[in-house]
């Protein structure tokens, strides 16, 4: 097996003022082997249909009983059949979304060296991530960079600068939306969502700002390699540049972008808690050769000591803590190059 690239390698040479991570320099061993291994080394993408996700108008939650109930059923059905849906009239203003995007673009336009050393940033050490440190072939490489920030970093910042105050405003409104949707999904299972409310605290949830630089190898490279999310719920705001793809009925489909809507997807914890009623669906991002792409994801996560168990018996999954789950995912990615996730926690069949 090839040694994984080392992001700390000081021999990597690059333009000091460039915002782009040094993908080709750092992963040159993987790219140099293309002549012998091109067919199996690159991810393989077939031409696929672009489909619009189920679109749900959350205004209906404020109307009469019939409209409200119909909207809740739509949310539950999309979570069962797709694991993904998009919402409009979601309560997050266009002004906040646009301001968040502007601040995010400014952040990512900083020189790469400033992002890696955290210069002028108020985030915890390790918040900035790029590429795939464990990649041993190009199909395990994610052509992207991100700031993965704990809400405790954001909400305690006292609006130190435009970025901090904008992130705080955005995170506060998006977290309210995530909890509202979690309430509805729990209710449709016949349960109150006190468990999710009490365990998913500002200190345990995350905001992830993503940038996908133009990729000269597109469309043969992942922006983010295939995965499921390890949380309860994810709320995603993306721009008009396509690239998000997901599995539906055993096939990959491309998601038609709608910048006016927010995308919601079910995470592994909700699938385990609902005993497979709600689906955490595999998804990925494909890089774009000419255009950069931005997105912002909010992850509704519990504390690490929170124990996840099914609300229905007999349970498909063993009881596990979120900390155990995260540790297993990290070990698998380190050893195998990819996440296995929930199948690790299935109850053995007799």
TrEMBL record:
Reactions performed catalytically: gibberellin A1 + 2-oxoglutarate + O2 = gibberellin A8 + succinate + CO2
Basic and acidic residues: bias regions: 1-16
One protein family per Pfam: DIOX_N
PROSITE patterns the UniProt entry points to: FE2OG_OXY
Leader peptide range in chain numbering: none
Taxonomic superkingdom: Eukaryota
Known EC number: 1.14.11.13
GO molecular function: gibberellin 2-beta-dioxygenase activity; metal ion binding
Class of enzymatic activity (EC top level): oxidoreductase
Keyword Oxidoreductase found: yes
Region (Disordered): 1-23
Database matches in InterPro entries: DIOX_N, IPNS-like_FE2OG_OXY, IPNS-like_sf, Iron_ascorbate_oxido_reductase, Oxoglu/Fe-dep_dioxygenase_dom
Coiled coil: 160-187
An annotated GO BP: gibberellin metabolic process
Keyword terms: Coiled coil, Dioxygenase, Iron, Metal-binding, Oxidoreductase
Residues of the Fe2OG dioxygenase domain: 203-302
Family: Belongs to the iron/ascorbate-dependent oxidoreductase family. GA2OX subfamily.
Stated name of the protein: gibberellin 2beta-dioxygenase
